[in-house]
Structure prediction request, 324 residues.
Amino acid sequence: MIDEKELIPRILHGDMKAFEVLVTQYQGLVFHVVNRIINMQEDKEDICQEVFMKVHQHLRRFEYKSRLSTWIARIAYLTAINYSKKYSAGMMVSHPEDIENYSFTDEHPGRLLDKKDVTAYINRLIAQMPEQYRTVLTLYHLNEFSYQEIEEITGMPEGTVKSYLFRGRKLLKDKLGIYLKNEVS
Amino acid sequence: MKEIDEQKLQQLLEQGLSLPDEALSAGEEQELERYSVLWEALEQPVVPGLSPRFAANVTARIRLEKDRKTEFRFNLLIAAVCLLLGGGAIAALIVFSGNTPVMQLLSHYGPILPGGLALILLIQYLDQKLVKEKVRSYS
Prediction:
């Protein structure tokens, strides 16, 4: 784990090696956030680079009021959302309230032979969910942010975050249950 | 299964707690099992991720961007100095010379000077813009 309070001043003094350490530390976090919001595979790395350019440009504004990871995740989230709005306006699902009746286009997982297959199947299902669900599931489970931190990153109220998480997990569990049952029978 | 039960199961998993088997009905146990499989899948990182040279690429791009900005500022400074010197020279000529051939030439072609300078600045700006786009497309 890096010491942010030691690393940030070095970056602000122009130490690019220190910034490279920061990028290495947080590139996974940024990729997970961007990956869930952006569908175009070829754009993901570019957007991640854009995120770190912004981090470098605005690092002076970081006031240690939150964890650095929360601050970087917010930049990643806003950058990806802006990109998504700009380039795939028609693909954004803006009314995800009726999630219980959500229909996936790819519901057939084939045979779920092992954990790797289950993960791949779940990831395929998540990719088809509305953006808000994808984001909260990723921030909570993959990036291990708390409800309050997710609120800070996305601007969604904590109650909404909890609701999206609960409904998203329930939907995925139900879909998984159907196919796990089929595997057993 | 009622929604409150689902909520309870999700809370249990969030807190990493487990209930004794006898506290759960067969249905609840099955649901808990499904949630556990889901939990594990949700925590698996997505592969493939970013390229192995990602961090180096980012820092190289930042360095390039910095160099570009420095160069642009330097060019702007040169243009400003030229403008000042040129303006000073013209002012000196107007003040100190009479109706000399130089003055006649200046009064005839004088307006070209600021126009030419503006053109140079425009070329500089477009050049920087093109470089920036090229950097973005390479990275």
Remarks:
- The interface with chain A takes residues 6-7, 10, 30-31, 34-35, 37-46, 49-51, 54-59, 61-63, 65, 139 of chain B (CB under 8 Å).
